[in-house]
Amino acid sequence: MLPTPCYVSNTLLPNLQEIFQRTYRELRPRAPLPEFRIEFYPFANVNSTIRVRETIVHARISDLLEGAPATVLEAIAHILLAKIYRKPIAALHSTRYRRYVLSHDISAKAQLVRQLRGRKRIDSAQGELYDLDQIFEELNQRFFHGLLGRPRMTWSQSHARRSLAHYDPAHNAIVVSRAFDHQRVPRYAVEYIVYHEMLHLKHPVKLRGSRRCVHGPEFRAEEKLFPESERAKAFLKRL
Predict the structure, then answer these.
(1) What angle do CA 220, 106, 58 make, to 5 degrees?
(2) What phi, psi does 57 have (nearest 5°)?
(3) Is there a contact between 139 and 191 (Cβ–Cβ < 8 Å)?
(4) What is the C-alpha separation between 118 and 170, in angstroms, rounded?
(5) 127-165 exposure pattern, b = at least 16 Cβ within 10 A, e = fewer
(6) Neighbours of 203 (CB within 10 A)
(7) CA dist., res. 236 & res. 75, Å (int)
(8) Is the pTM of this model over 0.90?
(9) pLDDT tens-digit readout, 103-120
(10) pLDDT one-digit tens code per residue, 226-237
(11) Crossing angle between the packed helical segments 187-202 and 132-143, to the nearest 10 degrees
(12) 113: how many CB neighbours lie within 10 A of its CB?
């Protein structure tokens, strides 16, 4: 069942209309001004979308951003309109938007919303060849003194190769591509993939200014402690 749209209130709508109209004029000073239909929408994350149908611009902004400062709403309008009309995105607006959505308060709200609204397909840790729960526990004892709490371990639904694995903090799950549950893939390569995601458990993403630091110095240093890291990386690169 699709979520019900949350339309902007009458008091806030004129402000958003003015922001989008002004931004449009800045980006396209000689083009006819279109009609704007804007709504706050209960996405499962901090998302915003925009599309043009005939002469009407439809924009949906995550309801997590309702109540954001006017400067942030201006940044969102600029980014959305610049993307759809293929204009360069000003660094000022990009930095302002990223700094706001990556702030602690908004990040915490987004993670909670993902838990409540998002859908995560959890399959099984037991593959045809490898058991991810078993691999996690063995690595936990070898490298983390058994102190890491085991998240939900699962093989992915597809055999994706472009995404080896990922840790989803909202659902506390490590998902590994099913492409690696195969006899042609050595165990050390699967162990390295799981070990890498376990490091994300130990070293959460940090915010430095307006940038997310995913693989910081501590993360990289511990990654090198895996004995066959270079061998595993070489294998995965070939694959």
Answers:
(1) 115
(2) -100, 120
(3) yes
(4) 9
(5) beebebeebbeebbeebbeeebeebebbbbeeeeeeebb
(6) 18
(7) 39
(8) no
(9) 867 777 776 666 556 555
(10) 999 999 999 988
(11) 60
(12) 19
